[in-house]
Amino acid sequence: MAEEPQKPASAEEVVPVPADTPPTTQSEAEAEVEANAESIEEVVAEAEKAQSGAEDKISQSVSFKEETNVVGDLPEAQRKALDELKRLVQEALNNHELTAPKPEPEKKKTELKALEKKEEEVSEEKKEVEVTEEKKEAEVTEEKKEAEVIEEKKEAEVIEEKKEVDATEEKKEAEVIEEKKEVEVTEEKKEAEVIEEKKETEVIEEKKEREVLEEKKEGVVPISPEEVEIWGIPLLGDERSDVILLKFLRARDFKVKDALSMLRNTVRWRKEFGIEGLVEEDLGSDWDKVVFSHGHDKEGHPVYYNVFGEFEDKELYNKTFWDEEKRNKLIRWMIQSLEKSVRSLDFSPTGISTIVQVNDLKNSPGLGKRELRQATNQVLQLFQDNYPEFVAKQIFINVPWWYLAFSRMISPFFTQRTKSKFLFAGPSKSAHTLFQYIAPELVPVQYGGLSREAEQEFTTSDPVTEVTIKPATKHAVEFPVSEKSHAVWEIRVVGWDVSYGAEFVPGAEDGYTVIVQKNRKIGPADETVITNAFKIGEPGKIVLTIDNQTSKKKKLLYRSKTKPIPE
Q1: Position 473 confidence tier, pLDDT thresholds 50, 70, 90
Q2: Measured CA distances, 358 to 54, 159, 172, 247 (Å)
Q3: Which UniProt key words apply to this protein (predicted)?
């Protein structure tokens, strides 16, 4: 990996496009651009005056270099920050805090108050039940006394008026009445006791639940740590986990608590947004030409192209931005695309865990398309908040003159670390800029390279030679051939506007030169890549001649190979 850069500012991952992208919130970003509409027009006016030569001004170089992910190679302060973050993550996993909803202190207080109030109500009800029981017992005692008086009176009357048999029967009836009343009182008392026990049980259970939660929070009751993965990798457990945690630390300038907060929010967002299900969704292929991957750069980073000019197609634009549902589908598609890209990266300490983005601004709708700007801002905010430090370099090509004004407006919103990843190139310098970082055989043909989708004689494994042809000069390329063979070559001059010819020159002095490709002038729009072939029957050489009579340097790309001819 590259050397450690000078102390960077806090990094907030950005996927810049021709839309305002402040590192705070989406709403603030939109408000800022809307509020500065007039100032944009003023700056654009200034940029129009300076349009000639603008390309020379916007082509820049950057100094950002990726830091190492090998823990042993980190500065001591960064290793300590990583160890501290791992400790805090382990605590959060133990307490099930990473996937839990955000805490609501006021709600907890309300629940405790409600529980206390319920306990008071149960206590009051218990007292009321006791009073009721005492009252019923008093009534039973009074009734018993009255029954005894009646009984005595009746016994006296029986002695006087009736026989002893009648008196005995009345006494039994009085006893039956008394026993019946006592049974009713006993049943009511039992029912009251059951109700009281039930309420006491509910209060005890609620109290126990509250105590268990408090004990868990304090670490008194041992619970199994939750298992959390992100991009298919556990947050703790192996060296790949360290690479992920380092991304969050770098995104927050190694401020451990800020990094933990960002990580916690990302885990919760992934759960709420349903990332695992989103990866499997079929969202169609409407935007396959808007965002696509193609090859890798010279350091092995996967390269992704954002082609905003595709939205010049009114049918596609309306199909994408006609209503909120369609805009949300685009947002989900873009997040799905990035999620799949991230999952394909190598998170080992020495692996490639970042990408290069090429943003093509040719025919871009620009600042006037409010729907595109809003959707882009929303996506950018989600990328910044939940995919930190995944972009190694941002290359802007075919940058129009109006972007000068726009970039001047948004520049204050970006940190120095983020801006150090940006590289800008106007139309005439776009191919040259891409070739600095991506081999020509891996650059798509529409951007000046030789890579084409259809099956060709050459593949991306066949290297390309680059040559710069000075103004008003001729340049010759020779391919020596020592045996009978079938020679094939392809050639491209970026922007052409030169003359090109090819011939075979035999090695024998008495041999005759054979014209393979008659010399002709090739305009910028005539052809992109020229492929020639020639069957050679004797030793000699193929000579290609490129005549650049313009006042500009030209970039020449070519490669060749020979195939033996069977006897």
Answers
A1: very high
A2: 20, 121, 107, 21
A3: Cell cycle, Cell division, Cytoplasm, Lipid-binding, Membrane, Transport
Report whether 477 contacts 544 (CB < 8 A): yes
- Give the Cα separation of 332 and 301 in Å (integer): 24
pLDDT tens for 146-195 read 767 677 776 666 566 666 655 566 666 667 667 666 766 677 677 777 67
Q: Phi/psi zone of residue 293: left (φ > 0), alpha (ψ -120 to 50 degrees), beta?
A: beta
Q: Report DSSP state, residue 221.
A: S
Distance CA 495, CA 527 (A): 9
Minimal CA–CA distance to 412: which of 32, 2, 158? Answer: 32
Q: Which residues contact 306 (CB under 8 A, 6 or more apart)?
A: 15, 17, 290, 291, 357, 358, 359, 360
The helix/strand/coil state of 180 is helix
Q: Which homologous superfamily is 294-438 in?
A: CRAL-TRIO lipid binding domain (3.40.525.10)
Contact 391, 354 (CB under 8 A): yes
Query: CB under 8 Å to 198, separation ≥6 — which residues?
Result: none
CA distance 556 to 533: 19
Number of helices (H), then strands (E), belonging to the chain: the values are 15, 15
Reported as a pLDDT band with limits 50, 70 and 90, residue 558 is very high
| Domain residue spans of the chain | 66-99+226-273, 294-438, 465-564
* Confidence at 370, pLDDT banded by 50, 70, 90: confident
Q: Give CATH superfamily name and number for 465-564.
A: GOLD domain (2.60.120.680)
Residue whose token pair is 């090109």: 500
* Degrees, nearest 5: CA angle 27-29-31: 70
Q: Hey, what CATH class is 66-99+226-273 in? A: mainly alpha
